[in-house]
Specification:
- It comes from Clastoptera arizonana (Arizona spittle bug).
- This is Fibronectin type-III domain-containing protein.
- The chain is an alpha+beta fold and about 575 residues long.
- The protein has four domains: about 1-150, Immunoglobulin-like (Sandwich), CATH 2.60.40; about 160-245, Immunoglobulin-like (Sandwich), CATH 2.60.40.10; about 255-360, Immunoglobulins (Immunoglobulin-like), CATH 2.60.40.10; about 395-570, no CATH class.
- Helices cover about 20% and strands about 30% of the residues.
- It has eight helices and 29 strands.
- The chain has helices spanning about 350-360, 365-430, 435-440, 440-445, 475-480, 505-515, 520-525, 530-535, and strands at about 15-20, 25, 30, 35-40, 50-55, 65-70, 80-90, 105-110, 115, 125-135, 135-140, 145-150, 160-165, 170-175, 185-195, 205-210, 210-215, 225-230, 235-245, 255-260, 265-270, 285-290, 295-300, 310-315, 320-330, 340, 345, 555-560, 565-570.
- Strands 7, 8, 10, 11 and 12 form a five-stranded antiparallel beta sheet that branches. Strands 22, 23, 25, 26 and 27 form a five-stranded antiparallel beta sheet that branches.
């Protein structure tokens, strides 16, 4: 068919050469034949690839290969030789965009089972493959192997440049070599004067790991030769360049009329600018030199454009030293020639710098102000802390006092109500339970008035002192005397609260206690220790007599097991207790 582009010829005779041509045809006839191709029939191409392919680098430019022939049943006749293909996959050099990496080929006889590839690139990785071929054609390629050549000497650095050139220093920089040929360890920079003479003949070598070096302490307006070499296993070839210190082409002209002025704390420099050269002035080098020295030192380098004055503080100079000054302008092309001062400036002494100059500082930068400010701050902090502590304590004590007062008032009210109720019951029951009531008073004062009282019992506690004339007689208590540790129950009962009056009088009395802030309860609820000790030290007599002037009809006497309680219930008739002040 017209779409067929290949065909298999069979039944050919072995060991014969055939010439094969292809002739197209159609319905009108045949066309011209193709050029003839000779084919030897009798052998096939190898179907196996070389075995055990191995390679190792011998040097920076040579790789040694070893292999074995394909298996005999896969050779398909006698082999004519081997083809070696190798391609650089990782280069140790920078290639331009137009450079192309192509696969290379070498052919060796069939009797070879090793071969050396030479003239390879240094420190480069190669991919290598082999195949066997016979008269019928090429067999399949072997699996690729990767071999990297050894390191070699590097190429020279490129593009040596000089910048920031001053009268005594410059910055030299360069680019890494295009052919590194290994791992770069560093560089060695060598510089020397271009013209050897007695004055300038030194040679300096310096190893660096970066691609730039700031060189200082050069001589002014002297030409130097610089060489830079890269290092891998050793140093490679050098790149050279010459440079002269001082002004360059396109630099500004020197400043004019440099004058000096002294102040209490600094030196003031004034000058006039010259032409700026091929570019605008970017800044200035302000340099100083001691009178007995020969080398200029840079005090500062400005970078804020053209100036006509500058101030140098004495703090940047040595005390008691004579100085000369010079000013150098610069632009992007280089520096100008320096402008020198005719005057010499003598800096103040160290004593003046440490004390006299400090006195000229603003008050807020002087030592006394700093100390006073620190002391004032400490005092203010202490006062604030003290005020906060006092406020906290006062609030705490106020809360405690309020709580104590409220508890005392609540206990007094409960005690008075309970005592009045029990006295009322005792009178109606014939007075049999009064002693038990008085004995239980300290215990019942802590209970709610809603709880019914327990059975009456006689206590060992002494009677509570009150403004009323209350006398308690007991044989047993008479023997013991007055109790030194009475209970903590309230001692602020009024005689009207334990009298036999009606309940309306008791309620009015309780209301007066709650409403009057200067009542008996408020007066004695917070009794201090001194008052308490005063009435505790008073020893009661065995037979209390009622303190009455003309009120016999208002007294009530109750007998309890041989003792007596005399109650004076007349209005405004209250017997004072020992240790208590009288009140209305």
């Amino acid at each position: 068919g017209i779409k067929v582009n290949k065909v298999v010829l069979t039944d050919l005779t072995r060991d014969h050469n055939y010439e094969i041509v292809v002739i197209p045809f159609n319905s009108q006839g045949t066309g011209p034949p193709s050029p003839p191709v000779a084919v030897y029939v009798g052998e096939a191409v190898p179907t196996g690839s070389p075995r055990a392919v191995d390679g190792e680098p011998v040097s920076a430019t040579e790789v040694r290969l070893r292999w074995q022939a394909p298996q005999e049943n896969m050779q398909n006749g006698d082999l004519l030789g081997y083809k070696i293909f190798y391609l650089a996959t990782e280069l140790a050099q920078d290639l331009s965009p137009e450079d192309k990496v192509e696969e290379e080929l070498e052919v060796v006889p069939a009797t070879y089972h090793s071969h050396s590839l030479v003239f390879l690139d240094k420190f480069t990785e190669y991919r290598i493959q082999l195949l066997a071929f016979n008269p019928a054609g090429d067999g399949p390629r072997s699996s690729p192997i990767i071999v990297k050549t050894l390191q070699g000497l590097p190429g020279p650095p490129s593009e040596l440049r000089f910048s920031e050139i001053t009268m005594t220093s410059l910055l030299v920089s360069w680019d890494p070599p295009k052919k590194r040929n290994g791992e770069l360890v560093g560089y060695i920079v060598t510089y020397e004067t271009a013209e050897q003479n007695e004055r300038f003949s030194k040679q300096v070598k310096q190893k660096v790991s970066d691609t730039s070096l700031l060189v200082q302490t050069l001589e002014e307006e002297v030409t130097y030769t610089f060489t830079v070499r890269a290092e891998t296993i050793d140093y490679g070839p050098a790149v050279k360049g010459n440079v002269t210190t001082g002004p360059q082409e396109g630099s500004p002209m020197r400043p004019k009329e440099l004058t000096l002025g002294k102040s209490v704390s600094s030196v003031e420099l004034h000058w006039l600018n010259g032409p700026s050269g091929k570019g605008p002035i970017l800044g200035y080098y302000i340099q100083s030199k001691r009178k007995d020295d020969t080398r200029w030192n840079t005090v500062t380098k400005t970078g804020n454009g053209p100036l006509q004055e500058f101030t140098v503080s004495y703090q940047n100079l040595l005390p008691s030293t004579a100085y000369n000054f010079r000013v150098i302008s610069y632009n992007k092309f280089g520096i100008s020639y320096p402008a020198y001062s005719e005057d010499v400036v003598l800096t103040p002494s160290k004593l003046y710098l440490e004390y006299g100059y400090l006195q000229m500082k603003p008050f807020y930068r002087q030592t006394w102000f700093m100390v006073a400010l620190a002391a004032t701050s400490i005092i203010i902090i202490i006062m604030v802390i003290a005020v906060l502590c006092v406020k906290s304590k006062s609030y705490k004590y106020k809360q405690e006092a309020q709580k104590t007062l409220e508890e005392s008032m609540a206990m007094d009210i409960d005690d008075r109500q309970q005592l009045a109720m029990e006295l009322y019951r005792s009178r109606h029951s014939g007075g049999g339970g009064l002693g038990g009531t008085l004995g239980k008073r300290s215990t019942m004062s802590r209970k709610s008035h809603l709880v019914p009282p327990g059975p009456p019992m006689i206590s060992k506690s002494p009677p509570r002192p009150s403004p009323a004339s209350v006398a308690y007689h007991s044989d047993e208590e008479s023997l013991k005397g007055y109790d030194e540790n009475p209970d903590d129950s309230s001692v602020t009962e009024k005689p009207s609260e334990i009298s036999s009056t009606d309940s309306q009088g008791s309620e009015s009395e309780n209301d007066s206690v709650r409403s009057d802030p200067h009542s008996f309860v408020n007066h004695y609820a917070n009794v201090n220790d001194s008052l308490r000790q005063s009435w505790k030290r008073q020893k009661p007599v065995r037979n209390y007599s009622s303190y009455t002037d003309s009120e016999p009809e208002g007294s009530a006497v109750v007998s309890l097991n041989g003792g007596q309680i005399i109650m004076n219930n007349m209005a405004r008739s209250r017997a004072p207790l020992p240790g208590f002040s009288s009140f209305v």
